[in-house]
């Protein structure tokens, strides 16, 4: 007796023996039952063989080769592109930065995107979709790094976006997007070389003044000169032309490592960002009287190092107990003080002295101050209180003090509508990979600055955080699990599929 064949071009089931109506009915029932259970069965046995259907009936899978294996390999490859031999360092328009940009551009073209590099060194990759005149979705992060960096800060967001678009291209859906999608690898977010953050994204958002071209690094080379050394001729006129018109942009999305411990604590790979803390960077200069360490009596010294130390200790106390120092005289409401208690952080990250010799009382000390908080009014109150203390203390110690504001960025609230879509995409992506309901996606605040802060002046913004081990960032110990990279890429892909 021959077995029934299901592989005939004839829609009826072919058999080599007579079959009754009842037998046919039972067989079809069993067949239908199996077909209903098959997707669930394959999902349970292997995440790599999960199948679903979009509204057109096109089938897709989880793209582990693109969103996981290739993405991980690319992040590792990018992490080895450095200006230093023993650690990772890529600063604005450095040789390593140029090599990294060329790699990203090649990967963008591999994903089917049209690419170019603009006058601020940003690398772009664009898919026009069905209607190139529609407002574009921008997805981005930065390709530069801090000194002695990890592999994932900035790079993760760019690679995940490229991978998601490559997955669409692999299934013939890239040109079916209802609006253009553009990936931007921003040339400078960290501000290491020129001490001016967001050079890349600020230019796109129209925030970068033309005077920024004349900012110089420690070797005296200007931003304009660094670009020229990379064969990019940037003038005041074409810098202004970099600005995107708000009418041409639908929104901006950024994927970034959390740089904190919350997601690891809750045991989930993805979290939604609801806002980014405002930030102010100060440069404080204290000048005293330089002298011999062994001959100037203690009560006759005008020592800028001791004055700087007193100021730094005061800053720590001020930021640990803002309610103790800030009054309720109408300038700083109690609600503001309460919000500071939950988000205020202050850091002195750099200090230098001149002439910096062990047997010399320094003549000058310089240090940086970084103040961040979700409440902009409260952040200004902290800076006012610190500055007030500084000038009083300097008078008392007979030293000269000066404070320069090097960077200011107000707090950013992510767009509610875009955030809802990203949260839904994250939930669906995690369920797609695991086959299980992950529960509610956490909602977090960002204490770190991101390109989304600059882009918020151009368009609505949304952000996703990706779990990083130990919450460690700006360090070689920075690490993201391979499966979490996969989840991030899948979340971007799921979000893009809403634009089909």
From TrEMBL:
One annotated GO molecular function: metal ion binding
Protein name per the record: allantoate deiminase
Keyword RNA-binding (UniProt): no
Similarity annotation: Belongs to the peptidase M20A family.
Keyword entries, A-Z: Endoplasmic reticulum, Hydrolase, Manganese, Metal-binding, Purine metabolism, Signal
Catalyzed reactions per annotation: allantoate + H2O + 2 H(+) = (S)-2-ureidoglycine + NH4(+) + CO2
GO cellular component, one term: endoplasmic reticulum
């Amino acid at each position: 007796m021959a077995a029934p064949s299901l592989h005939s071009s004839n829609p009826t089931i072919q058999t080599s023996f007579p079959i009754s109506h009842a037998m046919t009915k039972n067989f079809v029932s069993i067949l239908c039952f199996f077909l209903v259970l098959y997707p669930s069965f394959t999902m349970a046995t292997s995440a790599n063989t999960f199948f679903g259907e979009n509204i057109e009936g096109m089938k897709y899978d989880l793209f582990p080769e693109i969103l996981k294996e290739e993405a991980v390999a690319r992040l590792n490859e990018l992490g080895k592109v450095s200006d230093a031999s023993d650690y990772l360092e890529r600063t604005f328009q450095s040789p390593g930065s140029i090599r990294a940009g060329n790699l990203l551009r090649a990967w963008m073209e591999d994903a089917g995107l049209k690419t170019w590099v603009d006058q601020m060194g940003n690398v772009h990759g664009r898919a026009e979709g069905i209607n190139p005149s529609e407002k574009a979705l921008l997805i981005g992060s930065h390709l530069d790094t801090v000194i002695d960096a990890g592999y994932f800060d900035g790079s993760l967001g760019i690679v995940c976006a490229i991978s998601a678009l490559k997955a669409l291209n692999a299934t013939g859906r890239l040109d079916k997007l209802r609006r253009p999608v553009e990936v931007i690898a921003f040339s400078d977010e960290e501000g290491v070389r020129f001490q001016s953050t967001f050079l890349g994204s600020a230019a796109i958002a129209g925030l970068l003044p033309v005077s920024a071209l004349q900012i110089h690094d420690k070797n005296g080379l200007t931003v304009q000169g660094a670009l020229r050394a990379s064969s990019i001729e940037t003038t005041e006129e074409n810098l202004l032309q970099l600005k995107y018109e708000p009418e041409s942009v639908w929104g901006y999305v950024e994927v970034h490592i959390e740089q904190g411990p919350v997601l690891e604590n809750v045991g989930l790979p993805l979290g939604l960002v609801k806002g980014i803390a405002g930030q102010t960077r100060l440069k404080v200069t204290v000048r005293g009287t330089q002298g011999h360490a062994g001959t100037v009596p203690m009560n006759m010294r005008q020592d800028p190092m001791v004055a700087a130390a007193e100021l730094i200790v005061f800053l720590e106390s001020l930021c640990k107990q803002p309610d103790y120092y800030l009054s309720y005289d109408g300038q700083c409401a109690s609600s503001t003080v309460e919000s500071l208690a939950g988000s205020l952080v202050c850091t002195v990250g750099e200090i230098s002295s001149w002439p910096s010799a062990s047997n010399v009382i320094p003549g000058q000390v310089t240090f940086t101050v970084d103040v961040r908080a979700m409440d902009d009014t409260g952040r200004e109150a902290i800076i006012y209180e610190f500055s007030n203390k500084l000038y009083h203390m300097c008078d008392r110690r007979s030293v000269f003090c000066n404070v320069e504001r090097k960077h200011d960025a107000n707090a950013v609230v992510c767009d509610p509508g875009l955030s809802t879509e990203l949260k839904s995409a994250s939930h669906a992506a995690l369920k797609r990979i695991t086959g299980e309901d992950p529960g509610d996606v956490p909602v977090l605040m960002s204490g770190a600055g991101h390109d989304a802060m600059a882009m918020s002046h151009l368009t609505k913004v949304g952000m996703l955080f990706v779990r990083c081990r130990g919450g460690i960032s700006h360090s070689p110990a920075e690490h993201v699990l391979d499966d979490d990279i996969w989840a991030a890429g899948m979340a971007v892909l799921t979000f893009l599929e809403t634009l089909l």
